[in-house]
Design goal:
single chain; mainly beta; Glucose Oxidase, domain 1; eleven-stranded mixed sheet; two-stranded antiparallel sheet; 4 helices; globular
Length: 265
């Protein structure tokens, strides 16, 4: 199915039959990603007086209680409520609607490279990747990092090699762009040992001297732990974030990228 969309005066033809999901399936009984906690996401049979939610134990039906942390167990989208007193729901706070997105692949230098405290995505490489993309009329950026983590997408990050993060300069440069959504294949925009979540604060305009982009940074979203299929080429896509209805500062999501069949002025 081809949809014709008017995007900022540009006609996009979006192939809705060829969408690709970026979410990591969360299997409560099998392999799963984990970050910042040693506790697995788990499911247990509901137990109430006179009822067991497990047919194998004599129950009339299966009914599971699911326990997981959106920030730690799989693909999720978060909002400024992650850092703000009182929190807030993603569904209320971020920019709504589908948008044009750019997928880029960034190579991180080795963690032991000079000046690196871990794998770092520098400003020069980021600028080069986005300049090669041409005119920036997209509002979302999807970042695929290389080299890929061993065992991806079901990575236990406590036992894995350090994941790459943006340098402070790269993050400030990126935050100055008129972007609304940032999607990453890493478990966090910041390193796990940064208690201030410094890069999150720059993106959401909470850091001292943070850039002032042409969009309201407080309405931006961050989607972490996406899994970008290896056969998906860099380029422009139509993005649907597809948030779950669970209302919190972070919620499970299933970002969908739809290819552009044709674009014309």
């Amino acid at each position: 199915m081809i949809a014709t969309i008017d995007w900022r005066g540009r006609t996009l033809r979006v192939d809705y039959a060829a969408g690709r999901a970026l979410a990591i399936p969360l299997d409560f009984h099998g392999p799963q990603p984990a970050f910042f906690t040693a506790r697995r996401a788990r499911a247990r049979a509901l137990q109430e007086e006179g009822f067991t939610g497990d047919v194998r134990q004599g129950g009339s039906c299966n009914a599971e209680v699911l326990e997981f942390v959106p920030h730690c167990h799989g693909t999720h989208t978060e909002c400024i409520g992650h850092l703000r007193p009182g929190g807030g729901a993603v569904q209320d706070l971020i920019f709504p609607g589908p948008v044009l997105a750019r997928l880029v692949t960034l190579e991180a230098p080795p963690a032991d490279a000079p000046g690196c405290s871990g794998p770092t995505l520098g400003q020069a490489g980021l600028q080069r990747a986005l300049q090669d993309a041409g005119p920036a009329d997209w509002e979302a950026l999807v970042v695929r990092t290389r080299p890929a983590q061993a065992g991806a997408p079901y990575v236990d990050y406590a036992r894995a090699e350090p994941y790459p993060v943006f340098s402070a300069d790269a993050m400030r440069w990126l935050a100055a762009r008129p972007l609304r959504h940032l999607l990453l294949d890493t478990p966090s925009l910041d390193r796990a040992d940064d208690p201030q979540l410094s890069l999150h604060r720059v993106w959401w305009g909470l850091a001292t001297g943070a850039p002032e982009p042409a969009v309201d940074p407080a309405r931006r979203s961050i989607t972490e732990m996406v899994h970008v299929p290896t056969d998906l080429p860099d380029g422009d896509y139509w993005l649907h974030l597809e948030l779950s209805p669970l209302r919190s500062d972070a919620t499970p999501s299933r970002p969908m990228l739809y290819p552009l069949v044709e674009a014309s002025a």
